[in-house]
Amino acid sequence: MESAVAPTNALTLAQVAASGILLGGVYALLAGGLNLIFGVMRVINLAHGELLMLGAYAALGLFVLWGVPPLLALALIMPLLFGLGLLLQRLLVSRVVRQPPLTSLLLMFGVSLLLTGAAQQAFTTNFRSVPYLSGSVDVAGLALSLPRLVAFGVAAVLSAAVYAYLRWSRWGKALRATAQNPDVALMCGIDVDRARLLAFGLGAALAGAAGTLASFIFTIFPEMGGTYMLKGFAVIVLGGLGSFGGAFAGAVLLGLFESFAAYATNAQAAEGVAYVLLFLVLLVKPSGLFGLREG
Amino acid sequence: MRWGVTAPVLLALGVLMLATLPLWGTGYVLSLLFLTFMYAAMASSWNLISGYTGYVSFGHAAFFGIGAYTSGILLTNKLAHVSAPWPVAVLVAGVVAALLALVLGYPALRLRGPYFAIAMLGLAEAVRVAVTLAEPLTGGGKGLSLPPALVDVPAYYAMGLLAMVAVALTHVVATSPVGLRLLSIREDEVAAEVVGVRTTLHKLVTFCVSASIAGIAGGLYAWKQSYIDPTTVFAAGLTVRAITMTMFGGQGTVWGPVIGAVVLTYTGEQLWARFPFLHTALFGGMIILILLFLPGGVIALLQERGWLPRSRRV
After folding, report:
1. Which residue in chain B is spatially nearest to A241 when comparing CA positions?
2. Are B98 and B235 in contact, with CB atoms under 8 Å apart?
3. Quick one: which of B30, B35, B46, B5 has its CA closest to B252?
4. Where are the alpha helices (DSSP H) in chain A?
């Protein structure tokens, strides 16, 4: 979020807008997973940012140890996080899914602390980054950062793939049915428990993908998850809880807001934008800007 | 009703022992108990809003922090030409924390449980950033140094008194109709509204009272430490400990937070000293285990065994 120093003109504003939109790509992946998990089982995954953190460290490790480029590492990290998601759902979340929402909230809070602490112990609290891709490309007179452009492209493709999967595939339909009404879905012969398992695995895999992309455009450290969880939540509140398509619009919107806030003031104030935005939208329209209505 | 006799006697003995402790205890014991009182107050404060109404406040450190900075600023002569006497500074800290709770809670408490929890997570962060940015008044990230004072013993008594007040207040709430209304909000808010409970009012008042306890605790902490900075007094770890301790003892009970504070303050200090990073993970693991295997905390366990009466007074 570098603030430009050039005088304000149309080109500068376009530049700021473009970098904001690019920022939105990773947010969209992150929020998409958060949204899927919330939609299907009404669990707010407070450990979602930590799943992203794990993905980022996995990408870092693969890159440093064996020189695996992050884009290739996706093929390994996503199944890995998918498996972790299945484990979390099977061992923990499935036990509290019928209890009041606050139980699962506190449970995932515990998981997030556990993962953060374990990462601090294992990886130390140093800031790290993956030196992968650099420089910028010139698109229609705008200088776009190459790593962010690539990250946005991958995020867009993955989001589209998941959207298509949810829209047209058999299990995608089962997931959406479970999200709408688990009891009716069960009566229609859908294996609801399996749908929940799939949703958590898929959500975790998306968080892992977001982490892999974040590894070469942002800084990696054990406590990074908290900020991303809040941003992810801001995105789905903007886009509408449970609406997967809305999340992409919300993510781009948040990216734009942050980018312009960083341009107008400074990076620290831009960090606050997500929180303020989150709060205002929750108050004014709890169902989100693009959401249908509250579940 | 054996407990009707034994409980007050035990309580009186405990208070007597703690009251005379500065005469015979070592400095280490004194500061350890200061922390225990502080966490008992913080956990009771969290328990009031979150344990009774079910509205999880993930940002309770914000009230501790704002209290610490209020009393810190008043104790230095940053605002007026003279520094305020400490009881004034500490009480104002409680009032400011309650006002912050009013401003945040008035809109936020209209949100349903999980949304409130997330909103608080963001708001606490926003308060910390705001305090850090208000550099002329707060010293920013460098922190704020107060006039040095050797106040270990008075601070011990003051924090002990605060913890007692917090427990007494919880007792009053728990045994009154107000407590029942708060519990009804936790169990089914819509139903509570339907039978005529003014839910928003109850939540808001409870939130303000809860915040003022945390604010006073922060104020006393600043007075004793004579140095505060945003990362210490707004530490997420404060909220984490308050939550873990309350859940360990039993949320929505009078003595649960105290049991949690007594058991976990010392263990927490030891863990923190030996495993500076792993202790976060251990607190997280503890929350998970309690939720899965002991959702009612120690109190519920003792009640099941018949060692404690099943009463809202416990």
Report:
1. B115
2. no
3. B46
4. 10-41, 48-66, 70-88, 94-96, 101-123, 146-168, 170-180, 182-187, 192-215, 225-239, 244-264, 267-284
Task: Say which residues have a Cβ less than 8 Å from residue B129's Cβ, sequence separation at least 6.
Answer: A268, A271, A272
CB atoms within 10 A of CB A176: 17
What are the backbone dihedrals phi and psi of residue A93, each rounded to the nearest 5 degrees, phi first?
A: -65, -40
Does the domain spanning A10-284 belong to CATH 1.10.3470?
yes
Specify whether the CB–CB gap between B156 and B22 falls below 8 A. yes
Chain B CA closest to residue A38: B114
Nearest CA in chain A to B275: A121
Chain B contact for A115 (CB, 8 A cutoff): yes
- All residues of chain A having their beta carbon less than 8 Å from the beta carbon of residue B126 are 272, 275-276
Q: Do A103 and B291 touch (CB under 8 A)?
A: yes
Measured in degrees and rounded to the nearest 5, phi and psi for residue B227 equal: -155, 130
Which residue of B126, B275, B291 is in closest CB contact with A107? Answer: B291
Q: B102, exposed or middle or buried, with CB in 10 Å at 0-12, 13-18, 19+? A: middle
C-alpha count within 13 angstroms, C-beta hemisphere, residue A153 = 8
Q: pLDDT 10s per residue in chain A (295 long)?
A: 444 454 567 888 888 888 889 888 889 999 989 988 988 888 889 999 999 999 999 999 999 999 899 999 999 999 999 999 999 999 998 888 777 777 888 899 999 999 999 999 899 888 998 888 888 888 877 888 888 899 999 999 999 899 899 889 999 889 888 888 888 888 888 888 899 999 999 999 999 999 999 999 989 999 898 888 888 888 888 877 767 777 888 888 888 888 888 888 776 667 777 777 777 777 776 665 555 444 3
Q: B90 CB contacts (<8 Å, ≥6 apart)?
A: B71, B158, B216, B219, B220, B223
d(CA A161, CA A167): 10
A268 lies within 8 A of chain B by CB: yes
Cα–Cα distance for residue pair A181/A168, rounded to 1 Å:
19
Place of tokens 């309650």: B98
SS3 A1: coil
Taking contacts as CB-CB distances below 8 angstroms, the residues of chain B near A121 are 275, 277-278, 281
Tell if the CB–CB gap between A102 and B113 is shorter than 8 Å.
yes
Report whether B35 contacts B224 (CB < 8 A): no
For residue A88, give the chain B residue with the closest CA.
B288
Report the complex ipTM: 0.83
Q: In chain A, which residue's Cα lies nearest the Cα of B56?
A: A102
- pLDDT for A208 equals 95
B288, A110: Cβ pair inside 8 Å?
yes
**Is A274 in Cβ contact with B107 (below 8 Å)?**
no
Residues 6+ apart with CB under 8 A from A259: A1, A16, A17, A19, A20, A23, A270
Cβ neighbours of residue A161 closer than 8 Å, sequence gap 6 or more: none
CA distance B248 to chain A (A): 13
Whether residue A94 lies within 8 A of chain B, CB to CB, comes out as no
